[in-house]
Amino acid sequence: MIQQVMIKEVKEWIYAAAEKIRASIDAELSIAQKSGRTDLVTNIDQETQAFLIGKIKERYPKDRILAEEEGYSELDSLQGRVWIIDPIDGTLNFVLERENFCIMIGFYENGIGQLGFIYDVMQDELFWGGKGLGVYKNEAALLPPANLTLSEGLLGMNAYMYGKNIHSAWEIGHESMGVRVSGCAGLEIIAMLKGNHIGYLSNLSPWDYAPGLVLLEEFGFKYAGINGQNLRFSGREYFLAATPKAFDTIQEKYLNV
Ligand code: IPD
Ligand code: CA
Ligand code: CA
Fold first, then answer.
1. Which of 204, 207, 240 to mutate for ligand 1's pocket (most ligand atoms within 8 Å of CB)?
2. Which residue in 1, 11, 22, 253 has a CA-CA distance of 20 to 30 Å to 124?
3. Do 169 and 134 fall into the same domain?
4. Residue with CA closest to ligand 1 atom 2
5. Domain stop point among 83, 115, 141
6. What is the pTM of this model?
7. Considering Cα of 126, then 55, then 23, then 204, what sign does the dihedral take?
8. Last residue of a domain, one of 141, 169, 201
């Protein structure tokens, strides 16, 4: 019951945040660089984060928050109730394409993912779900995708890893049916939930994967750090999620060699 109330609230927050973004989609952005020229933050990233954090603090003041932009990007542990937020996932797409970006929110309790939300803002598609609740696209329940092998499906990939052949990314991609690069972790995870991609190999921060992991887990996908270790939920790390068959092949044949 409590979970149902929370789901309804989070959806309302996401839809309200997205409405503000869509209303100003053609407006001039205020853009700053973070670690380099391709690592950007805009006034919309900051405003969306502030809006979502404001809602959480108003409603659940004792909960802790990990979020990408300033002031919230570090948390010592996942103990207790923790919200993990990427206000705009795919900021470069947002700046240069004005589409192909997501709002993402995860809710964890003592390190266990309970609820996950990935909203493709311009397509108006909300992928959400929770532990034991299933996975939904808007109001429709989705069926878990088939457990395809690496050679049977498309693989989402981080462009830099593929280009530099980091962790055998090129060889792994070559064994798949083909590599796809969207520039948005949320869209890559959506592609897996829809059964369009068999996996995703990348280099991510916790807010890039935490919301989606709840949904991937619900659908029986496997995920881990690059050598099969538990994800740290702190700082950037190499990341692999895939169907069980593709995951095992990638780990055994290419990563743990
Ligand atoms: C980025 C995107 C991108 C991934 C990067 C992320 P941001 O998130 O998800 O696809 O390759 O590692 O940082 O910065 O646009 O929220
Ligand atoms: Ca992100
Ligand atoms: Ca972001």
1. 204
2. 1
3. no
4. 184
5. 141
6. 0.98
7. negative
8. 141
185 Cα to the center of ligand 1, angstroms: 6
Q: Which ligand is nearest to the CA of 44?
A: 3
What is d(CA 192, CA 198) in angstroms, rounded to the nearest whole number?
Answer: 6
Residue nearest to atom 16 of ligand 1 (CA): 89
Domain CATH code at residue 127? 3.30.540.10
241: domain CATH number is 3.40.190.80
Atom of ligand 1 nearest to the CA of 202: 11
Q: Which of 14, 22, 111 is nearest to 55 (CA)?
A: 14
Summarize pLDDT for 106-157 with one digit per residue, the tens. 999 999 999 999 999 999 999 999 999 999 999 999 999 999 999 999 999 9
Domain that holds residue 11: 2-141
Domain co-membership, 187 together with 228: yes
158 vs 7, 110, 128, 179, 184, CA distance in Å? 31, 30, 23, 9, 9
